[in-house]
Amino acid sequence: MSQMTPSTEDNKKKPSFALAIATALGVGYAPKAPGTFGSLVGVATAMLTSLFFLRPHSLRTCSHDND
Questions:
Q1: pTM (two decimals)
Q2: Under a CB-based contact definition with an 8 Å cutoff, are residues 23 and 29 in contact?
Q3: 4-8, 11-15, 36-40, 63-67: which has the minimum mean pLDDT?
Q4: Distance set, CA 45 to CA 2, 14, 65 (Å)
């Protein structure tokens, strides 16, 4: 019986799109304070997402309807 050795070529390939999302386009690899910069990206993403989905202009029009 011949012994099988695992291929190392497949292990070197990383899913680039998933890796880019998971590391916030590489911010997670910052040499100093990667967690801090990652948190800043997370806060900015949360703020932009809330502005996009909450649409503050629609909230203002609803509050004027009650006057």
A1: 0.53
A2: yes
A3: 63-67
A4: 53, 24, 31
The vertex-52 CA angle with 51 and 54, nearest 5°, equals: 65
State the Cα–Cα distance between residues 40 and 27, nearest whole angstrom: 10
Instruction: Give the CA distances from residue 39 to residues 11, 16, 23, 28, in Å, rounded to whole numbers and listed in that order.
Output: 29, 21, 11, 10
User: What CA–CA distance (Å, rounded) separates 38 from 29?
Assistant: 9
Please tell me the distance from the alpha carbon of residue 7 to that of residue 63, in angstroms, as a whole number: 63
pLDDT of residue 9: 58
User: Rounded CA gap, 65 and 59, in Å?
Assistant: 10
| CA angle (39, 42, 46) in 5-degree steps | 140
